[in-house]
Amino acid sequence: MFPSGSPRSLSLVFLLGMASQGISCPSRCSCQYLEVNCTGQQLQEFPVDIPLDTRQLILAANNVSYLPPVELSFLADLVYLDCRKNFLGDDLDFTFIGVARLVYLDLSFNNLSQVTFSTFSHLLSLVVLKISDNPNLVAIEKDAFANNTWLRHLDVSRTGLTFLDTSTVRDLPNLRLLGLSDNLWHCNCSFLDFITWMMESDVHFPDADNITCHTPAGLRALRMPAAEAQLHFSCLTQLHKQDYVFLGLVGFCIFLAGTMAAWLAGVCVVIYEAHASKGEEEEEEEEEEEEEDTRGPRLRALLLRGRARHRPRPGSLLIPAPSRRRSAPR
Ligand SMILES: *[C@@H]1O[C@H](CO)[C@@H](O)[C@H](O)[C@H]1NC(C)=O
Ligand SMILES: *[C@@H]1O[C@H](CO)[C@@H](O)[C@H](O)[C@H]1NC(C)=O
Ligand SMILES: *[C@@H]1O[C@H](CO)[C@@H](O)[C@H](O)[C@H]1NC(C)=O
Ligand SMILES: *[C@@H]1O[C@H](CO)[C@@H](O)[C@H](O)[C@H]1NC(C)=O
Ligand SMILES: *[C@@H]1O[C@H](CO)[C@@H](O)[C@H](O)[C@H]1NC(C)=O
Ligand SMILES: *[C@@H]1O[C@H](CO)[C@@H](O)[C@H](O)[C@H]1NC(C)=O
Hints:
The protein is an alpha/beta fold. The protein has helices at about 5-25, 70-75, 115-120, 165-170, 190-200, 225-235, 240-290, 295-310, 325, and strands at about 30, 35, 55-60, 80, 105, 115, 130, 140, 155, 175-180, 185, 215. The chain has a domain at about 20-185: Alpha-Beta Horseshoe (Leucine-rich repeat, LRR (right-handed beta-alpha superhelix)). The strands form three sheets. It has an eight-stranded mixed β-sheet with strand order 1-2-3-4-5-7-9-10, with no helix packed on it. Strand 1 (about 30) and strand 2 (about 35) form a beta hairpin. Helix 5 (about 190-200) crosses helix 6 (about 225-235) and helix 7 (about 240-290) crosses helix 8. One 2-acetamido-2-deoxy-beta-D-glucopyranose binds next to helix 5.
């Protein structure tokens, strides 16, 4: 229990141990073998004179608002601590740093406001943790139980929680029971992941009828399986404001590109037409000069058409038609 080298400190520890066996017991508490029971004594403070070899300490239903970490750490063999129905609150971080053997911890019916990684991270043997009925408990950090790998029973019912990250509980390999009822669950799309985990896990959720959404108003009092169906639908079809802006921009770009393409096509057609008519005039002039055209099959076709038009009439076979203008009827 105490790492000490000299025989004198050893005997001191022995004497203290002897004293704890029966001689000392906190006032207003009852002490049995390795167990101290101070239930319902209106204690204002953590009792002094607790035997150092105590394994089980019951402080239930008192008025204790502070657990002193140092005095608690004297009880290095403590495995069972019941502090339900007290006024514990404020900051419990590092409170349990010296009671690493704790297996059972009951902090229900208190005034906890938050749980962080440092609150329970030293309790590597913790199996049962009850923090239900803490109406001011509004936040549990994502990795709050990351070190409590033996946790089997966790109760966070009847708190002020609106949200719990899935990884907070999903990664607990030994979890068998999880109390979630009568919280103010905010069923938004982030919470859908948690509900989906609930549906799929084989953890037991006591009082499942009372695990319901509190907000948004449209989902109030809806139980989790029903909420999952609703959320699945709305979260998968939901478009955010920026999505609309994006879609609008895409639409505008398409419109712009279309207009540009149409304009370009129009310009091309106009240029082509202008070229084509100019080419025809040139051909006609060339034809007048009776020169061979070598500019391509299309132009040649036009040329042929032009020649066909000016084929001489049968009656005037002998009269050569030197030019179109002169052959025109006068
Ligand atoms: C502690 O004492 C109270 C009454 O003083 C009693 O009701 C309770 O059962 C005791 N708890 C244990 C674990 O002995
Ligand atoms: C302890 O708390 C109870 C309930 O809040 C109260 O009625 C009682 O007066 C308190 N006792 C002391 C000694 O403060
Ligand atoms: C509970 O904690 C809140 C702050 O979180 C505090 O304002 C309030 O006074 C506390 N209540 C009791 C009974 O200690
Ligand atoms: C958390 O657990 C790891 C491994 O079990 C350990 O090394 C570490 O010290 C623990 N953290 C705290 C704050 O106790
Ligand atoms: C959902 O609600 C929680 C808690 O109110 C909040 O932290 C989270 O950002 C919300 N998620 C979305 C997508 O609104
Ligand atoms: C479940 O909720 C109902 C209505 O809010 C309440 O009357 C009932 O006591 C709750 N059940 C439990 C076991 O807390």
